[in-house]
Amino acid sequence: MKRVALLGATGSIGRQAVEIVARSPELELCALMSGSGPLDALAAAHGVEHVQVGGSAAGLLEASEPDIVLNAIVGFAGVEATLWALERGVILALANKESLVAAGELALAAHRRGGGLLLPVDSEHSAIFQCLEGREPETVAELVLTASGGPFRGRSRAELEHVTVADALDHPTWAMGRKITVDSATLANKGLELIEAHWLFGIPYERLAVVVHPTSIVHSLVRFRDGALLAHLGQPDMRVPISFALTYPDRAAVPVAPLDLAAGLDLRFEAPDDDAFPLLRLARAAGERGGTFPCAYNAANEVAVAAFLEGRIGFLEIAETVAAALEQVDGAPARDLDDLVAADAAARRAAERRLVPA
Ligand code: NAD
Ligand code: MG
Question: Biggest alpha carbon distance in the chain?
Fold first, then answer.
């Protein structure tokens, strides 16, 4: 029996994870955490003793002694749990990409010390992880992340000027939490995923590519040095990568409808539009600069997305806010978690200043 601490239990990933754990005789929930939503009913239904709403994750994790931490918290708030699991060598099933983007080298160092498994839940990274299993690093030429393109794919920058919050939340292929849905509309999500892939797989940015694939059937690809591309195909259903991470390496059954290949799959790919969706190249630039620039990118994006969802700024101003904040921070590397929290806070202040012009 493996004990799962589920952080972000009330969210989109969290609810699907509850379903996966409930189906598996080898998994049990040992801890539940949310940011604000109540957990009493869920805890009672699954006999979970360790429950916490808000506050610090470390105490809950110490007390509940998990074998697996599924980090499905949204945003930088997930960084403490990510570092906790990596440092101790507890299996980390990571949905909370923001923590790996922000913590970067600190997370990698903790992972090296802890020596545990770091299993991506993000569908693209789960796909790449599976395509890379058993391959020699020198055979890998390039990782190719697929992006659905979000609800605004094909629109020009001018056409994005007046889009609404409701338009941005209307994702064509995935049903997800609000923050990541807006990130998918701006392509910041793919930007975060580019940095996430860099840290997960140790591949330099020049060998990380992004391609738009509107039907979200190919979850990502790996190009090898002999020209062969290995791809991971499936329904766009997060229960698959959640289950893969929680039951690794057993790959438990998941009740998804098989893809009907004979019905004809739409496997179109196209280049992302950097002009309409500048947050993708801003992420790449932040990743290449290193230090705490990725942390600042993430922090400013969180502030800007929240402001957009509150109706304080328009859609195009999300990217403008992030770009402005990145120009104001020093990006100095973080030596420890305190440095990282300070870098996150500085970027948030820079973004807030941009939102409220003097
Ligand atoms: P969501 O908004 O639906 O849920 C977020 C969860 O985090 C909620 O349970 C919320 O209570 C909790 N939370 C928020 N602040 C917290 C805090 N300070 N402390 C503890 N818990 C807190 O988000 P989601 O769509 O489930 O996404 C969760 C994470 O997974 C994000 O990092 C997202 O990028 C990633 N992810 C999601 C999907 C998806 O399909 N939803 C796919 C890939 C990756
Ligand atoms: Mg993803």
Answer: 60
